[in-house]
Amino acid sequence: MLENYLIIHKSILPDYFEKVLQVRRLMESGKVREVSQAVKQVGISRSTYYKYKDYVFAPSDMEGGRKAVLDMMLHHTPGVLSALLSRISAVDASVVTISQSPPINGRASVTVTLDISAMSVNMQELLELISGTPGVEKPKLLAME
């Protein structure tokens, strides 16, 4: 994905790119409620904002984008999911979503999406930690960004 991006000093870009970021910050902060208010405040047109809003980012906007999707089988016994979540939390990864199928034959398929931007171990170490959790079988990495 990063092959689609360039790092360019903003001093050589037209000022409306910076203004698109200003509009986004105004909207996210709640200081203004509508795009029309925000664009008027920073001095660009709505069409300029909408044209570039999905393509202009500050470096800090991309830092939190590290995600990983893991899939595994969990035994249908009390405490297994809790133990799994404790292991994930112990390495400073945050759970974004959990999807669990109904248990069949005493096992349930679980897919977990994690924010790994602050994780204190690498992915291989996390998988080893998870596989050592009693009641967790076949943890595998499905995707990572």
Question: Your description of this structure?
Answer:
The protein is an alpha+beta fold and 145 residues long. It has two domains: 13-62; 67-144, Alpha-Beta Plaits (2-Layer Sandwich), CATH 3.30.70. It contains six helices and four strands. The protein has helices at 15-29, 35-42, 46-52, 59-63, 80-90, 123-131, and strands at residues 67-75, 94-100, 107-115, 136-144. It has a four-stranded antiparallel beta sheet, with helices on one face. The mean pLDDT is 89.
Secondary-structure map:
Elements: H1 15-29, H2 35-42, H3 46-52, H4 59-63, E1 67-75, H5 80-90, E2 94-100, E3 107-115, H6 123-131, E4 136-144
Antiparallel strand pairs: 1-3, 1-4, 2-3
List the main descriptive attributes of the protein structure presented here.
6 helices; single chain; Alpha-Beta Plaits; 145 residues; alpha+beta
